[in-house]
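Section 3.1 - Work completed
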Amino acid sequence: MSNPRSLQGKVAIITGAASGIGESAARLFIEHDAYVVIADIQDELAHQVIASINSDKVSYHHCDVRDEKQVESTVNYTLEKYGTLDILFSNAGIIGPLRSILDLDIEGLDNTFATNVRGVAATIKHAARAMVERKVRGSIICTASVAACLGGAGPHAYSASKHAVVGLMKTACGELGKYGIRVNCISPFGVATPLTCNAYGWEASEVEENSCAAANLKGVVLTAKHVAEAALFLASDASGYVSGQNLAIDGGFTVVSQSYSSI
């Protein structure tokens, strides 16, 4: 019996895949027989990940998603190496300034949008061009956040940027559907990734404790692997008629009032 989650023969670009959610997704996609291009700015970490995976199905291309030329170069590298592009997981992002709105760092906001929004737009643009030109019925997945669904679930610049990512996903879905290209988002709750730990100055255990305390679903610690599993679902034929959706990996957090006391 065929496995609907198999990515056999498919080629994926995963941005921000040298660590965290992206790294977990790269490992999982390769386990399901995809060819993966890790696109990141953390060269040393990326090479360490590739060495640990130890597979001829993974390669690395330096890419700062804020620079459209680097994004285009990454797509071209993928096409030259593998001949096609089936999956884009546009995952690279930053937390941005942790400031009150009364003291917001506007330059920090601009950089957050350059990475989290313009970067996503550039990756969608160039990946979709490649898919359309090759008549690939591809899958594009963008990392948003629970902060794209609720106010107060993240810093101001980060929350605004992730709202914009969901908007980009919806408009891209509307245009690319006629080519058979699916576009979706995943929106994780708090995950103890290096990005989160470094931004807040916390240990992984502190992030997990904080998330578990605020979580609606008890008894489960959210990990990068959980989020990667959702990305795998959206990348695979198991979600063949799913497009335009923002899949929350949050244990119900965004659909339950946090201010209401349970009876």
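Second construct:
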Amino acid sequence: MDIVPNTINKSEFQVSEFILMGFPGIHQWQDWLSLPMALLYLLALGANLLILITISHEPALHQPMYQFLAVLAVVDIGLATTSMPKILAILWFDAKTISLPHCFTQIYAINFFMFMESGIFLCMAVDRYIAICYPLQYPFIVTDAFVIKSTVSVVLRNGLLIIPVPILAAQRHYCSRNEIDHCLCSNLGVTSLACDNIIINKLYQLVLAWFVAGCDMILVFASYALIIHSVLRLNSAEAISKAMSTCSPHLILILFFYTAIILLSVTHLAGRKIPLIPVLLNVLHTVIPPSLNPMVYALRIQELKAGIYKVLGLGEYVSRK
């Protein structure tokens, strides 16, 4: 056990680094997970970069709906990159050690990008709500300034509210254990090693989750409930089909994202009995949404699909087909 004196802390000892052990219960064969993890990470990077390039190069996609999608692509790249390089380093090079500052930085980054994803989904839900329920006012309400203000608001909200999470974790005293049975530095996984009371850490994480993700989820589903109510009142089957086609990609990914969060919360309650499940879900939740989001949008939104074909040089082939 790596324990070194700490002259700054009033306590006698303080660990100098943490050791990320990997996936609990399967340490002997966890290396086999490296290939699918690497493929998912490369897919997340490649697909989201392609989305960004397509939206940037196609003037027809310079609209609020696609601008929010571009922001989501940036968030997805950030979310996957906060965890996957370190996980792959653990699986490939046995690079299990991580310094305390780097660990607390990872705690902040994971929470920030996770809540950013939730916030951007809310912005996209509001965008679709205004587009479908108030189509005549849409061009005057949802402007470039609206996109910028909404994005900046989400960034400031998450950036400020999450600052106490790593600060509170850094204030704990880690005097004996430094082995984390995880692939990444999760807030509760790290603070559970502390020798002093961590009740404030647990309470703040709980309040943060309910206040940020919980409020976002309620507002998102309220928006889609109003959208569905408005769509069902339309007399035109064509109008209903068009409205649902623009909303279905958002709704699919939103349902997946929040269902995964709920499952992750529930499995953490049984974490002591089956520790592998919450750890695996936690890791997958940082890489599957970033790799799944661009795939769903590219397949379900015809304008974006056409733009991607054009960027890839397949536009002439598609038009002939």
